[in-house]
Amino acid sequence: MPKITATDVLVPADVMPEAREIYIENYLAATQGTGRLMLFACDQKIEHLNDDFYGEGIDIADNNPEHLFRIGSEGVVGVLAGQRGLIARYAPKYPQINYLVKMNSKTNLIGVSQDDPYSPQLNSLESVLAMREAGVNIVGLGYTIYLGSEYEAMMMSEAGELIAEAHANGLLVVLWIYPRGKAVKNEKDADLIAGAAGVALCLGADFVKVNPPKPAEGSSKTSAELLARASEAAGLTGLVCAGGSTVDAQSFLTQLYEQIHIGGACGNATGRNIHQRSLDEAVRLTKAISAITLADYDVQEALDVFEGKENFSL
What we know:
By secondary structure, this protein is an alpha/beta fold. It is 39% helix and 14% strand. The chain contains 12 helices and 8 strands.
């Protein structure tokens, strides 16, 4: 895949002139100079508590949070996304990783049947900028919005202000947007996911992370074909898909390839499919994912990378 240069980066108008160079540097770093995003999602320790890190089918190494950073350091990723405190504890040992600070989170203990979801902002932008000033390699921020929740207006307002302030300081922003709440009958409806992509654009996000749409019963379209509607609706905001629960490598890589080449996605956001594996296997999978996302490998070529038959680096 051709590399892009600084002149190829479309800088949003809300980036202050003195921050333009920082924004361009962060964009090129996050996308490894390709314009596509390989996001290693490590925010589930709040979102799913310890369920994603210990149990049947999960490598024992995953119970140690440092496993995430070893993968990010030895593998090939664009950014490692996690909460401010998690990054603050481990970044001194892993200063070379590009970090994206997840600004809001909630646990999964309160279900939709009890209350509509609301994920409050946990930290101020000032505290993140202070970490950056102290030398932590922070290139962006992340924020989750639950469309359809009765609290959606609060989350959209927080996200809108955060994006404006982040851009003014040269940081990228990735929005996680999921339709969810008592008013939402089908979280993976293709029209709702396309709508979520459009909301991210209107709020000014650089990238939006969505769940892949699920075809309705009797539909002749695949998930990737339906995703194309959302990618178009996102406009100049890059759309990436959530990785979901762990599946075999070939199935996952095939899905990723189709999301990019049929669905128009410009990357991926993968967590459990990577970190629930042993360090060696997880590192190889990051390289296989990046081979597709950042270098336009086909599925078989990426499988060769995963299986250790071919080396991959950027």
